[in-house]
Input
Amino acid sequence: MTTTNQVLADWVKEVAELTQPDQIYWCDGTAAEEQKFNDMLLADGTYKKLNEETHPNCFLHLSDPQDVARVEHLTFICTEKEADAGPNNHWMAPQDAHQKIDDLFAGCMQGRTMYVIPYCMGPIDSPISRCGVEITDSAYVVQNMRLMTRMGSDALARIEREGGFVKGLHSTGELDPDRRFIMHFPEELAIKSYGSGYGGNALLGKKCHALRIASYQAKTEGWLAEHMLILGIKTPAGKQHYVAAAFPSACGKTNLAMLIPPEGYVKDGWEISTVGDDICWMRPGEDGRLWAINPEAGFFGVAPGTAKATNPNALKMLYKDTIFTNVAETEDGQPWWEGLDDRTPKTDWQGRPFDPANGPAAHPNSRFTVSAKRCPSYSPESEAAAGVPIDAIIFGGRRASLVPLVAEAKSWDHGVLMGATVASETTAAATGAVGVVRRDPMAMKPFCGYNFGDYWAHWVAMQEKANHLPKVFTVNWFRKDDQGKFMWPGFGENMRVLEWIIGRCQGELSATETAIGHLPSKDDINTDNLDMDMNVLEDLLAVDAAGWKSEAESVEAFLSEYGNRVPKALFDQLKQLQSQLA
Ligand code: GTP
Ligand code: SPV
Ligand code: MN
Output
């Protein structure tokens, strides 16, 4: 195969001259190709076959133990001006970055095959979708991209029709953490990634394209590229709503996106459907609302904690046609992770006999890759070219204290301040310390391809582009008590909070105005059959004024780091908050 797109043909040739592969292979996205690649990965030991009876067509991949998560300290935004990348990013001058990483790419595919993957982020026929091409020397990356994107001839045909595409070059290299870089060139619509095979570092359509590059494009073109799930909620009256929610990595997007409501809700006729679990592209429609697509076609989800009791929809999709990375394995070849059930695995994520002295059996950031079509709650609207209209935007994080279960913003500007100042405990999704509270604005700290000051200004300016913007909320499922136990049951019970949010969007349910936003009282939340102490619920809905005063001080210092790029509206909102707390 080759292409009629001259830019693509020239680029493939140029990359081949640099990396010197033995062969070039163009991916067509067919089932036959999928089979061929699986056989190849089994033959070379990259894959281990899991139990064919319990898990047909499922594979286990154990990565290099040093290559298990995103590497934020090695991820760069390479804009001409350093200030355009902002204090939220590591920056390198584009010329220096190209030179540094091209030195690593030189000759790196000798003796290997170079795979060319044309892909489309979003439904092939959606005007909101965008295409890219990833060149990689990893067949494991090809198989993941096959599940995560619309990949192959259809995408190539769109590229040939439209012309433009994002260029992504990837090599697993030697997997040496000291020779690893994830470089982004937003002004060139290009990505170069060397030295890691891990999801967010290597599947370039995902965080690199659909968030870092796309957020930059979205700013220039007047739309939003966000780290958000998209969820459909149908009320018993038959009204269909959609919400988008931004939580930092490993903070509950996949779980909320696939939520199964408590029994009473199901009986009453509430229905939840899943549009996306990680990324949301939204643009103003002619009706002044935000219309959203999920640019992805699959889920690259956190395995640990996935169980019948927490996320039964996920469990149902994972017994077939799934790639498992860095999970443990039972005696009879089934995938296993902490929280799944009370079996003891035979081998751990490094292939060693399981020994609790070595730590968890599955890596805390072990993942599954599966087609979204396998999800029982997958919404047919996920394929809609126009996208779905968003009624509410939710921001959240992991905060053991202070932040209430739910709050509604008083206005769009106030909502932008809420989103911009979310803080959350770090997780195993990125290398480095876990459990450290840091600001993670809109859950985009690792993913915004430009200066956060400009990004917030863009959010504020959405008011001029769309006159029926969603209502904005914050949530926190992760408050802990003195014993370190979660105070809110979470998972399916989060439906109770969603019901209040939808009620507020319809102007039906009541709330109390406080300094930090509109909050429900415990009587505004549906607590039928909810097994928890009502005093605890009251605690979760209380406003700790002293705590918020010091939070506001810390927010002021944080915003000031971004200087005069911060829109005035955010400082105005902060002043209002401070005066109401005083
Ligand atoms: P990324 O794929 O990294 O962007 O993560 P995500 O936001 O999709 O996170 P995910 O839904 O996979 O959840 C991560 C972890 O949080 C899992 O171990 C879940 O079991 C846990 N979790 C999710 N929702 C809840 C909740 O409502 N309460 C509690 N206590 N834990 C939750
Ligand atoms: C995240 O870390 O937010 C993920 C996983 O969704 S990865 O695609 O690897 O970034
Ligand atoms: Mn994510």
Summary: The chain has three domains: 6-46+71-222, 226-297+383-543, 298-374. Residues 70, 199-200, 206-207, 249, 278, 300, 429 surround sulfopyruvate (ligand 2) (CB under 6 Å). The mean pLDDT is 98.
